[in-house]
Amino acid sequence: MSFVIEEIIFDAIKILRSPIHSDHRGFFEEMYRADAFIRNGIPTDFIQDNHSRSRQGVIRGMHAQHTAPMGKLVHVVRGQIQLVEIDIRKGSPTFGNHVSIDVSDVNGRTVWIPPGFANGFAILSEEADVHYKCTALYNPSGEIAINPLDPQLGIRWLIDDPILSDKDKAAMTFAEYAQQPMF
After folding, report:
1. What angle do CA 71, 36, 116 make, to 5 degrees?
2. Which of 4, 52, 67, 146 lies in disulfide reach of 62, CB 3.0 to 4.6 Å?
3. Measured between alpha carbons, how far is 7 from 14 in angstroms, rounded to an integer?
4. What phi and psi, each to the nearest 5 degrees, are found at residue 2?
5. Hey, what domains does the chain have and what are their CATH numbers?
6. Structural contact between residues 117 and 12, judged by C-beta atoms closer than 8 angstroms
7. Any catalytic annotation for residue 131?
8. Which pairs count as long-range contacts for 160-165, CB under 8 Å and 24+ apart, including other chains?
9. 17-69 pLDDT, tens per residue?
10. Which residues, in sequence order, are bridge partners of residue 81?
11. By the 8 A CB rule, do 112 and 16 touch?
C-alpha cells in the first residue's frame, strides 16, 4: 500500500499519508512516489528540493511565490510542526481563510500545497527538519510575504514567544495583500 489521501482542504490542499513500517531496527516510509501522486492528481514535475532545520518557537512564513507560481510538497523528516496555509486566491470562496495541520515524523503526513496559498509553519518540537519539493525554482523577486502574526488572520499559533526573521516581521498585512491579490 502506498500514499492515501487523508483529507482535501479548500478543494486544493491534499494531506497524504504513507504507511510507516516499524520494527526493532527503526522504521521505513516512502516520501515520494510518482505513480501514487499522479493517481491522486498531484504534479510530479518537481524541479527544486529544499530542506530547513529550525528550533522550537520559530515561525517561518507566510510565503508564496507568484512568479513563477510554486506548488510545494511538504514532509517533516524529524520533529513536529504546525503547518498553516492561507488561501490567497482572489475570487476563491475561502479567500483569507486558513487551515492549521499537524505534520510530524510520527504521523507520516505529507502535504501538497498548490500555488495560491501562503505557506508557513511553527516548530513545536525541540528542532524540526522540513523537506519540501517545489514545482518552480525559487524567485525572490516573485515572492510575497504576509506577516504570520497579523491579527486579522486569526491564526492560533501553538507556540509562545515566536521567533521570526526580520523579513517576516516587516511583511505586509493580509489587508494590504487583499488590495492587490497576486493569485
Report:
1. 15
2. 146
3. 6
4. -115, -155
5. 4-179 (2.60.120.10)
6. yes
7. no
8. 160/57, 161/57, 162/57, 162/58, 162/59, 162/122, 163/55, 163/57, 163/58, 163/59, 164/58, 164/59, 165/60
9. 988 888 999 988 888 889 989 999 999 999 999 999 999 999 999 999 999 99
10. 103, 123
11. yes
Q: Locate 131 and state its grid cell.
A: 523537506
Active site residue 21: no
Strand partners, 104: 80
For 61-81, letters b (16+ CB in 10 Å) and e give bbbbbbeebbbbbbbbeebbb
Q: What is the pLDDT of residues 110-154, one digit of tens each?
A: 999 999 999 999 999 999 999 999 999 999 999 999 999 999 999
Q: Are 60 and 120 in contact (CB under 8 A)?
A: yes
Task: Give the whole-angstrom CA distance, residue 179 versus residue 166.
Answer: 23
Q: How far is CA 27 from CA 22, 76, 106, 143, 183, in A?
A: 4, 15, 10, 37, 40
**Given 21, 132, 138, 177, the catalytic residue:** 132
Catalytic residue among 21, 24, 32, 63: 63
What are residue 101's DSSP bridge partners? 83
